[in-house]
Amino acid sequence: MSIVFEEGADAITGDGRQRGLATYALTFLLWPAILAACIYGTWLGFESGHSAIYFNITYLLLALSLFALERLLPHEREWLKNDRQMGADLAHTLLSKGFAQVLVIVGLTIGIAEVAASKGGEFWPTHWPLAFQIMLGLVIAEAGLYIAHRVAHEWALLWRFHAVHHSAPRLWFFNTGRFHLVDTVTSILLSQPLLFLAGAPSDVFIWTNSITAFIGMLTHCNIEMRFGPLNYVFNTPAVHRWHHSRNPAEGNSNYGENLMLFDILFRTFYCPNRRPPADIGIDGPMPTNFTGQFAQPFRRDQAALPVTSGGDD
Ligand SMILES: [Zn+2]
Ligand SMILES: [Zn+2]
User: Fold this and answer.
1) What is the widest separation between alpha-carbon atoms in the chain?
2) Cα-to-chain-centroid distance, residue 235
3) Nearest ligand to the C-alpha of residue 255?
4) Any idea which ligand is nearest the CA of 215?
5) In this structure, what are the phi and psi dihedrals at residue 259, rounded to the nearest 5 degrees?
6) Over the stretch 30-61, which tens digit does the pLDDT of each residue have?
7) pLDDT tens for residues 72-88?
8) Could you tell me what percent of the chain has a pLDDT over 70?
9) Owning domain of residue 50
10) Coil, helix or strand for 110?
């Protein structure tokens, strides 16, 4: 059964008078329920001693669920249309995720974690309940992710690579991993060592990266959901859609990967009470195929740096 929402600002302001109460409640419950289910799947993995297998199954189920929900409850119907960039999206995702795994494995193998644990381990509050340790891990990783993302919007050299992500003409779960490899590596190098240096135990490390993966895929999904106060805590789809606006005054905001903490602290949080633009992308050249996109940052002709001209809200 397809549930049709009328277009307009009230989709964000939360006017549910013309819709069934159950559907309205569902739109509030979906995001926390899906994230909770993913966390439960990860927890089962730890309990069974097969965290990698359980993570991969959970991630796949998340993708399938979002695919179905995007068709049942789409936020933008236009974004359901094929943009003929699925091959490029998939190739970026596989390359970036594959390389990220190699980097982490190499890091663990050469013992950065062990060295950090032996020095910094004493700083890590291992006596805290695991949930609080994971929250601390998310905040520490977020500091690096926020800086990496903000610099990618403010430094022309890195914007060349980050522009690949922003060139997506629509947002849906499938282009979550559409990042140029250089963009991915920059984020990893600025966030993961912070966790190492803080002496985070490997479980916290895995939990932090798993939750980052879940929130990341949710962030791009094209599902009509409401978030209320969660917008001020997490990088929800509502918040991230503003980040993809063509207008730099709107798009140079919400740099958080998981949390909005640093956006609020550094006044880059932006989530007005209206509908974010459906026409997203960048103003500048960007091929639609993978090899073209991979090579684009090295070309002469570049998309202009999204510079905010006056006004901070
Ligand atoms: Zn960005
Ligand atoms: Zn994005």
Assistant:
1) 59
2) 7
3) 1
4) 2
5) -115, 155
6) 999 999 999 999 999 999 999 889 999 999 99
7) 999 999 999 999 999 99
8) 87
9) 10-298
10) coil
